Amino acid sequence: MMALTPQPQTTEKLYGDYKSSVEFTLTPAIPSPPICADETSCDWERVTLCAFDAVKNSTDEAYKFLDCMDSHDLPLFYEPDVPVSLSLRQPVHL
């Protein structure tokens, strides 16, 4: 009997395939007690929360922003120009 190995799927494919039948909730990774995933200031997480707030209840727009952030090599320490630059590459419609 041949074992089936699941093929890795990108978040884009998963979201695209199932967004019409599953309710997704996107949440930045901020555990309790709060610690930041990639740096010491949590500024990247703050930017993500601000973007999510700006798009209100649009999971499509929140996903586009999060995917854009995750698909770029972000510097370890927050640089305010980076989110602006990313938003110009992948506009989030408010």
Notable characteristics:
4 helices; mainly alpha; 94 residues; globular; single chain
Protein architecture, described:
Helix content is 44%, strand content 0%. The chain has helices spanning 11-18, 43-54, 59-70, 81-89. With 94 residues, the protein is mainly alpha-helical. It has one domain.
Short characterization:
The chain is mainly alpha-helical. It has helices at 11-18, 43-54, 59-70, 81-89. The N and C termini lie far apart (52 Å).
Write the layout of secondary structure elements.
Elements: H1 11-18, H2 43-54, H3 59-70, H4 81-89
Please give the share of residues in helix. 40-55%
Count of the separate structural domains: 1
Terminal Cα span: 52 Å
Q: Count every helix, treating DSSP H or I runs of 4 or more residues as helices.
A: 4
C-alpha-based Rg, rounded = 15 Å
Envelope shape: globular
Structural class: mainly alpha
Measured by DSSP, the beta-strand proportion falls in under 5%
